[in-house]
Every structure is written in C-alpha cells, then in structure tokens.
Amino acid sequence: MRWWRRESGRARLPRGEGPWAWLSAGSVSLSLLLLALLLGLLVSRGLGHFWSADVALVTLQDGRQLAGRAVREAPLPGGSGRERLYRTGNRDLDGAIWDWVALTAIRDVDYPQELVVLERRRWSEFIGRLVALAPEAGPRLEGEAAWSALEERLLELEARREAIRELREQTILPLVRRLEREGESEATQALAMAEARVAELRASLAGASLVLESVSGKRLIQPLEEVVRARRPNAMTAFDKLVAWGQDVWRFLSEGPRAANTAGGVWPAIFGTILMVMLMSLLVTPFGVLAAVYLNEVAHQGRLTRLVRIGVRNLAGVPSIVYGVFGLGVFVYGIGGRLDSWFFEASLPSPTFGTGGLLWASLTLALLTLPVVIVATEEGLARIPHRQREGALALGATRLEMLTRVVLPMATPAMLTGVILAVARAAGEVAPLMLVGVAKLAPQVPVDGDFPFLHLERKFMHLGYHIFDAAFHGGDVQAAMPLIYATALLLVLVILMLNLTAIFLRHHLRSRHGTLSSY
Amino acid sequence: MKPSAPNLPMRQRLRQGRDRLATALITAGGIGVIAAVMGIAVFLVVEVMPLFWPAQSPGVGLETLWLPQDLAGLEAPAYRWQPTLGDDGGPLFSLTPLAWGTLEAAAWSLVIAVPLALGAAAHSALFMPRRLRARLRPTLELMEALPGVVIGFVAGLVLAPWLERHLGLALALLLLLPPGLLLAGGLWRQLPARLQQRLPLGWAALWLMPWLVMTWLLAHWLGPRLESLWFGGDLRSWLEITLGLDYANRNAVIVGMAMGFAVVPSIYALAEDALSGVPRSLAEGAQALGATRWQTLWRVMLPAASPGVLSAVMIGAGRAVGETMIVLMASGNTALMTANPLDGLRSLAASIAIELPEAAPGGTHYRLLLLAALLLFAFTFLVNTLAEVVRTRLRRRYRRLGGPS
Amino acid sequence: MPVTREARPAGGAFIDFDPQATSLEIRGFGLRYGDKPALHDLTLRVPRHRVTAFIGPSGCGKSTLLRALNRLHDLNEEVVQEGEIRLEGQDIHAPEVAVAELRRRVGMVFQAPNPFPMSIYDNVAFGLRLQGGLRKRRLDDIVEWALHSAALWDEVKDRLRASAWSLSGGQQQRLVIARTLAVGPEVLLLDEPASALDPISTLKVEELIRNLKASLTLVLVTHNMQQAARVSDYTAFLQNGELVEYAPTDTLFTNPRLRRTENYITGRMA
C-alpha cells in the first residue's frame, strides 16, 4: 500500500517519482499505441484486401453447404458460443454476400481446389464451381478444359476492352467535342465510323458464357463479358498468390471505380488529387513567398506589420470549411458566375465556371495553405544573418539583387519546407472540396488531348472524398470496406511521405544553419 | 595593375529602375495577398448582414436563432434546425442545437485529449532522454498530419460498431488503465537495481507498451464478466433502461475519441514547448532543494509555464471546434439538444459541409450557413489570437527569468 | 601629406587636410536612432591613400559613423541624420547619387567574415556580375587580381570552385576583402576586421591593409589600440558620439593633447 509514499524517509531519494510519473509515461505509450493501432489497421486491412485468401467449403450440421472466405468471429448474441462471418459473394443468387454461421453448426471445413472466385462487373464476386464454358460457336468445354479456356478468353477480353477504351478516348471523345463546337462537319462521318468499330468490338465480346454452380447447387449462366478475372485461390501456391497480389494492387492503382465506387480502382481519384495539389502549389508558392518577402523585407516593421503577422499566423488555425465557404461564395458564385455571363453565355443556364471545379478547388486550397507557406518562408528569411544582407549591399547590390542573389537562395529550404507542408495539408483536406469541386464520379479526367488540354472548369475525383463517399453513400458499406481501407492507406502513405520529406528538409536546414552561425 | 571593370551609367540606371519596380510590385503583391486572405472575414460579414434586415429574410432574428420557439404539436418551446422543411411546412432555423453540438463535440475531444497530451508533454519534458524526445516529436507530428477523413472513417465505421458490441470491454479498459499503470510503477520499484537500469523511466513510454497490451487482454477477459455481474449481462440495455440514456451508434463520445486523437499532437507540441522552455535554472533550483522531478514540475515548472499550457489547450479547442470531416463521419449528424454523451450530434461545420452545396445562393438558408461559418471563423480567430498573445507574454517572461535553456 | 591648418582650437588637436588631398569630408554630421542620439556635429576630413583609424570606447559611435559613410543606415527607418558627407566633393546623400553605385565606390568589410554561401570564385565575382557587361576572360582576370591583392590567391587558386564556407576564418575575411576590392572601390571601410580572428590571421590582415593604401583610402574602426598604432597613419578618437581628438597616429599615441584621450589610450578608462 502507498508504495510511492514509503520511500520519503529513505536515503536513496529521489528515485521514486510518484504515481503521476507513471500515468504521464502511460499517456505517451497510449498515444503511440493508438497511432500504431490505427496505422496497423490501415496497413493490414488495406493490403490484405488484395490477398487471394483460401476459400472454405463449409458443411453444416444440417447438410447445407456454403463456400466463402472467413472474415471474423464474434460471440453469439445469446451469450454462449461464437459465430463466424463468411463472405460468400453471389449476390445475384443469394441476395446477400455475407453469411453468419454459428461454430457449433459447422460439421466440416474443406478447401477443395476446384472452387473458383470470379470478379464480375456486376453483383460483386461469384464463389462456386465452374461447370462449363459455352463459346459462341462450337462445343461446350467442361472440367479442366473449361478452366484453361476461361483463362485464355479472359486475356483476350482484356485486350479488346483496352481497344474499346482507347478508341473511345482517343477518337470518339475528341470528335464529339469537335461536333459540339463546329456543328455538322466531316467529323460526323468519322464519328459514325468509330462508333461502328466500337459496336463491332463490343459485339465480339458478347456471346460466350459460363455455366456456374454455387456450392448449394444453384445454377447460373454468366455472360463472359461481365467477368473481370477468375482465380482458384485454393489451387494457388503462395508465390502465385503473391503475383496475383501484385497484379491486384496495380489494378487498384491504375483502374477506375466500378459499382458506385465500392469496387474497382482509384486511378481517377489519384490523378485528381495529384493534379489539384500540383495546381495549388503552383498558385501558393509565388503568392506565399511574395507576401513573406513583403512582410519581412519591404514592409515598415511597425505595430501594423506585427499585427498583420499575427493575423496571418492565426489564419492557419481557421477551420478549413470556412475557406470552403469563401471559395464557394467568392470564386464559384462570384467570379465564376461573372465569367459565365461574360464568356460562356451560350451554355447558360448550365454553368461552366459557375460551379465547383478544378480551378476553384485549387484556388481555395491555395488560400487555405497560404499562411503555412508565409509563416515558413518568413521564418527562413528571419533566420538569415543580417551580415549576409549587408555584405551584398556593401558590394553595390540593389535591394532586388540582394534578395534574388543572396537572401532567397539561402531561404530556399525553408520555402520548400513550407510548400511541402502546405501540399501535405492540402492533400488531406476534404471538407472545403465538398463545397468547391469534387465529384462523386468524374467520367472525364481534367486532362486530355483536347484543346486546351487542361480543363480547369471540370470537376474531379479526390482520394479523401472517395473515402467519404464510399463509406457514407454506398449501398453495401460492408462490401466496400476493404476498398476504403486501401484508399485510406494510400492517402495516408502519400501524406506521410510528404511530411517526412518536410521533416527531413527542416532537419537539414537546421544543421546547415548550425554551421552558418558557428563563427 | 588592376584590370578595371567598365562603368556603365545606362546599366546603372536600369538596375535602379528594376529595383524600384520590383519593390513596388512586391509591395502591391504582398498587400494584395494579405488582403485576399483577410478578405474572408469581410466577405462573410457582408454576406451575413442582409439576414438581419427584416425585409430580406422574414422570420429570422436573434430570438428565433438562439431561443426556443413555440412549435405546433409540441408542449414546450423547443429548438429545431430543419432548414428544408419543418413540421408546419416552413423551414425552422435554430442555430442553438448546432452550436451545442459543436461545443459538445469539442468538449468531449478535449476531455480525451487534454490528459493524454499534457501527460505526454510532462513526461517528455521531464523524464525523456533527448534522443527519444527528438524521435517522439516528429512521430506525433505525423499523427497530426493524418487526414481527418481517414480518422473519421475509422471512427465512424470501425470504432463505432466495435464499441457498440464491446461496451463492457471499453468500460473495463477505462477502469483498468490507471491502476494498471500505477501497478507497473509499483512493480518497477521492487525490481533489482540492475533491471531498473535496463528499463529506465525515461524510456518507459516504449517499454510500457507491452504492459498496456497486457492490460487490454485483461480487460478483454474482465469485460464480459463485469457486464454480467453489474449490468445484467448487457451494458447497453442497462444504460437505456436504468439510466434512460439512449445509445446511438455514432455518438458524442465516439466523436470525442476520434477528435481527441486528432488534437493530441497539437496540444502536446505547444505544451511541451512551454514546459521545456522554462529556464533550467528554475527547475535546477528546486531539484537542488531535494524535490523530485515530478514535484519540480508541479510546484515550479507548471506555475511558470501555465499560460503556455493554457494556450496549447486553447489552440486544441480551436481545432476541435472547426474540424469537419471527423464530426461529419463519426457523429450521426442529428441536430439534438441533449446532454447525453451517448447520443448523436450535429456540428456547425458538418452542417455547412452537407447543406451549403444545396442551399440556393442568396437565400435565407444560404446566409444562415454563412453565419455559421462566420461564427466558426470568429471563434477560432479569437481563441488563436488570445493564445498567441499569451504565448508572446510567456516568452518575454522566460527571457526575463534567464532565457530558455 | 601637407598639413594646412589647425582647425577648431577648442580643446583637442584637430588635424586638417587640403581639400585636394581629401577623399571623404564629414561636415557637421549628426545621427540619432529615434530619440537616442548617437553622433553629434562631427567634422573631419579623411585623407586620400592613407589609413585613418577611428578609436574609442564601445558605443562611442565609431561603427555608426563608418556605416554612415556608405549609407548602410538607409535600411533602418528609425535613423535620422543631419549634416553632410562628401566623397570627392560630392554629397553622398544628394538625390542624383545612386546608393548602389556609392556603395560600390565605398566598400565595406565587416567585423565577422560574411562570405555568401557559394563558391570562392562566385563570391569574388558577385559584385562584378552585378555591374554586368564583362566577358568570362576579363572576369577571371579581375577575380585573380582581387585574390592576389588580398594575398589569398596562393592559398585558394586550386579550389576556386570550393564553397567559401570551407575556408578558415582568416581566409574568409581576406576573401571578403578580395570580394570588395574586385568591384574597384575608392574607399575601403573596415569595421574591426580582425576582431574575430586569431593572432596570425590578424597579422596577415594588417599587412594587407598597409599594402592596400597605395591604391585606396582606408578607414579602420578598431578597439585595439596596438592595431591602430601599427596600421594607421592618422587616428581619430571618439567618445560619446563626439570627436575628441584627431591627429597623426604617432602624435596621438605619444603626446595626446587632452586628458580624456590620454586616459583612454593608457587604459585608465574602460
């Protein structure tokens, strides 16, 4: 009892620090533990999603069979015993993709090699057996032959889909836009030809179908064109799975979303995020540096400047949503509406710049991160010893020459740190974007081969908003969870990387500053 | 003999002209940029003004916004935020439940964050070796950089359902953590000196982690037993029946935990700055008199650094009030006026994010949401300015007391 | 050097020079920082191609005066100046004088060496590039000449591209002098140029100063009286922002006219 009081009389003081020391040490541990837990959760779930886990064939006591991947276990609501959640897929056959099974109800669990997992464009995945492959013409293939033919066919399909996509993006879309601009022209003809070609390719996709059977015995005719990929996880070696994992991660990074953002990849969101952040840094860097140079080098260093400096510093603490409101009110409704009525009257009432878009989002975020850049640059400028400036002036340099040749080069690492911190902050901000320009699904990325190549007025997708949207507006959140984890992991990785760069730069800057002030 | 450089009066004049031009441009640009940033406040005020001209927006005034209103079908006056359609057909605008929700969320997140952050700051300022501290800071800065949308997602879709199922475990954890830590301290005192050197107090933050995991496992075992012993097997229904507390899936406590996690790093960083900035001579004087390090903190350092610690908490509060995505995703967004921490809430920021894109520009709803933004702006700006003033005073005081160590 | 007349009989000795032999003329010059006066009514002439030293206790205004000579106070908005300073007869505050050009003609070397964070070569070429209009070959020539003049060439000729910060403190100070010489100044102001250096580097810099007076007017501020005695031809003693005594160095150090001066020189006053 009262062990921390006991030693007050002893000679070997002051080793005991009392209870608070331990509680405070515990709060550090707890914070770190929570951080580790969060990151661990994101990493394990985010990366685990792409692993083709084995598919279990579960035989229940009552003879019913089901096939699926075990997700987690939980105690039964009644209190005694536990139950296990299987992801069984087959939404079209069973109406759901989840199945809770009480552990006591399971008679047998097996992992037969022939179970296939088909990734489909609709109805999420199919888990069951492949009975036969029925091509457009010719005999049905069954058994192993069907499987190898399926793999071959899928590769072929992939190539054709790629061809269609290319045709659409390279030929049809530009033609359509030309038509919109110029009206009737020879483009009509070219367009018709291209569309015919697409229809032809599309027709060549259709035809073949698969005969599938779920483990509970329900049959299904699956058109082959709907199948994205097929795997037999139980027949794969660990190495195969690793290769498949790599492929799936790549698909996730390079493909567009499917099924209302609950499946597929996030490429448009990655692209949109990066493009928006790049535009933002292009805007924020010159303006931020300009303001910092003005405040630190040109402005009269009086009470007013000091007040302005505090004000700018505090703007960094103003909630991001307020900047979003400003962006919506001033950029979108104010400037955008004006621009529309001046230059885009033809397309009114549907707005061009009078609605959220890439430009307004970048501008809003630039405004949001301006204080970060100003503060960082000012700190860098203030840290440059006065004698460096005087040295330049004493050699006959004008103020501009002193700034551009001596002061700004020396402050570059500080500016860079500021810009990187700004980028890291902007990449994670979602709230203002909800007001000024993200889209749930943007079919066209804001960059293409059509003049002026960069379309500042278009809406764009964003990783952070993608998370929010998939988590709160999707139909089956449970089914989308793995994908959200993966997206969240990606976003966190990007931001952590940017922050680490900034920390490294700042460290580098400090150590250089150390040598500078040593004499 | 010296090879002389040519003297070019033309070029001389050119350089001068360029310098003047650049100075003018920098001045204009700098003032312009700063004015644009400061313009936010002006814009909000100008847009909100018409709200208080009776002709512009009938039915909106200070009383309707902030005081309970008599509503058809209700016995007592009530607060309602139903901007699109009210019970009697017209929209109902009462900002009180939103402001309440905002403050409630911020309060709960401070309840979680302040002990954690101040404890961590005290520990790292007092006990931690310099090497570990230099590592801890960037780690916590990374924690600060985690985007709100990710934290909100984890809170709303992972933590909330988990907590709903494991209320007993959470309660057991809450009860076990402090005694568990004290027990760790007690056991450490009994260790032989050699082992104590291997596990120094300065590194406790690291070697306590396995201990915390063990506490967790214990809570896992204890939780259900506790629940069946005290609460008849189900804490949630006990809460609802015995205490009359509704349990919403996404509630204020969840928001508090998530947002607390998010504001810990900023409070920590500022509080640690304030504590480690206390002149060393002060602390050494106390320790020379035989005070333990903790007593030194409590009696000497904390009184000296208290303004800095206070400003750290204020900046944390400012962040919590304005945070949007976490509240949006973890709170359920129900505009309620209830003190029950297990019920949902709706904050000003979340309302803006959800409703503003749909509100017609220039309308009453639109202007009200802008008023909400203005409130957020004014609150955070004031709090931050106050914190900044306090910090400046503190720095001056430290300089007087002998300069930062 | 022809001494024409003794001016200002009140109190101390004041040496004066023929306007023909004068490089810098300071007439009734005063300066204050806001409300705080720093210099009062200074009048003296600095002779061409000689070394003139300003000595005096800390805070007497000797550095302030030096900085006024190439208008470095322009940066500080609090500073109020009166009286005039003439370089070769022309008022340096006249509106038609470009401050950058003035600073080129009146070079300055500071207490602590302040090489820019660039290569040795770029440091020396910095001022020249600002003037512009030079071919690479000529630039090379001038850089080499400047480094020779600063007695640094032999030490750095093999590493002109190395960072200037890699040099020792004494070398850095000579580099700064070379950098200043390269733009071809008429006057070189030295603000305690050796106070941050070790004794050997100090000797090198002092030797350099003695060699430079063949082509330049030098003004040296120092708190080291031995240094002033070793290097300078004329010495001005300042106290509390006033000129107390101004005489040939030998005279001032061996036979000061005033008690104040004597006390300071013999170290009876801090």
TrEMBL record, chain A:
<protein>
    <recommendedName>
        <fullName>Phosphate transport system permease protein PstA</fullName>
    </recommendedName>
</protein>
<feature type="transmembrane region" description="Helical">
    <location>
        <begin position="483"/>
        <end position="505"/>
    </location>
</feature>
<feature type="transmembrane region" description="Helical">
    <location>
        <begin position="406"/>
        <end position="427"/>
    </location>
</feature>
<dbReference type="GO" id="GO:0005315">
    <property type="term" value="F:phosphate transmembrane transporter activity"/>
</dbReference>
<keyword id="KW-0472">Membrane</keyword>
<feature type="transmembrane region" description="Helical">
    <location>
        <begin position="20"/>
        <end position="43"/>
    </location>
</feature>
<keyword id="KW-0812">Transmembrane</keyword>
<keyword id="KW-0175">Coiled coil</keyword>
<feature type="transmembrane region" description="Helical">
    <location>
        <begin position="266"/>
        <end position="295"/>
    </location>
</feature>
<dbReference type="InterPro" id="IPR000515">
    <property type="entry name" value="MetI-like"/>
</dbReference>
<keyword id="KW-1003">Cell membrane</keyword>
<feature type="coiled-coil region">
    <location>
        <begin position="147"/>
        <end position="204"/>
    </location>
</feature>
<dbReference type="InterPro" id="IPR035906">
    <property type="entry name" value="MetI-like_sf"/>
</dbReference>
<keyword id="KW-1133">Transmembrane helix</keyword>
<keyword id="KW-0813">Transport</keyword>
TrEMBL record, chain B:
<feature type="transmembrane region" description="Helical">
    <location>
        <begin position="200"/>
        <end position="222"/>
    </location>
</feature>
<protein>
    <submittedName>
        <fullName>ABC transporter permease subunit</fullName>
    </submittedName>
</protein>
<feature type="transmembrane region" description="Helical">
    <location>
        <begin position="105"/>
        <end position="128"/>
    </location>
</feature>
<feature type="transmembrane region" description="Helical">
    <location>
        <begin position="252"/>
        <end position="271"/>
    </location>
</feature>
<feature type="transmembrane region" description="Helical">
    <location>
        <begin position="300"/>
        <end position="321"/>
    </location>
</feature>
<comment type="similarity">
    <text>Belongs to the binding-protein-dependent transport system permease family.</text>
</comment>
<dbReference type="GO" id="GO:0055085">
    <property type="term" value="P:transmembrane transport"/>
</dbReference>
<feature type="transmembrane region" description="Helical">
    <location>
        <begin position="368"/>
        <end position="390"/>
    </location>
</feature>
<dbReference type="Pfam" id="PF00528">
    <property type="entry name" value="BPD_transp_1"/>
</dbReference>
<feature type="transmembrane region" description="Helical">
    <location>
        <begin position="140"/>
        <end position="163"/>
    </location>
</feature>
<dbReference type="InterPro" id="IPR035906">
    <property type="entry name" value="MetI-like_sf"/>
</dbReference>
<dbReference type="InterPro" id="IPR000515">
    <property type="entry name" value="MetI-like"/>
</dbReference>
<dbReference type="GO" id="GO:0005886">
    <property type="term" value="C:plasma membrane"/>
</dbReference>
<keyword id="KW-0812">Transmembrane</keyword>
<feature type="transmembrane region" description="Helical">
    <location>
        <begin position="21"/>
        <end position="46"/>
    </location>
</feature>
From TrEMBL, chain C:
<dbReference type="InterPro" id="IPR017871">
    <property type="entry name" value="ABC_transporter-like_CS"/>
</dbReference>
<keyword id="KW-1278">Translocase</keyword>
<dbReference type="GO" id="GO:0005524">
    <property type="term" value="F:ATP binding"/>
</dbReference>
<keyword id="KW-0378">Hydrolase</keyword>
<keyword id="KW-0067">ATP-binding</keyword>
<dbReference type="GO" id="GO:0005315">
    <property type="term" value="F:phosphate transmembrane transporter activity"/>
</dbReference>
<dbReference type="InterPro" id="IPR027417">
    <property type="entry name" value="P-loop_NTPase"/>
</dbReference>
<keyword id="KW-0997">Cell inner membrane</keyword>
<dbReference type="InterPro" id="IPR005670">
    <property type="entry name" value="PstB-like"/>
</dbReference>
<keyword id="KW-0592">Phosphate transport</keyword>
<protein>
    <submittedName>
        <fullName>Phosphate ABC transporter ATP-binding protein</fullName>
        <ecNumber>3.6.3.27</ecNumber>
    </submittedName>
</protein>
<keyword id="KW-0813">Transport</keyword>
<keyword id="KW-1003">Cell membrane</keyword>
<dbReference type="GO" id="GO:0016887">
    <property type="term" value="F:ATP hydrolysis activity"/>
</dbReference>
<dbReference type="GO" id="GO:0016020">
    <property type="term" value="C:membrane"/>
</dbReference>
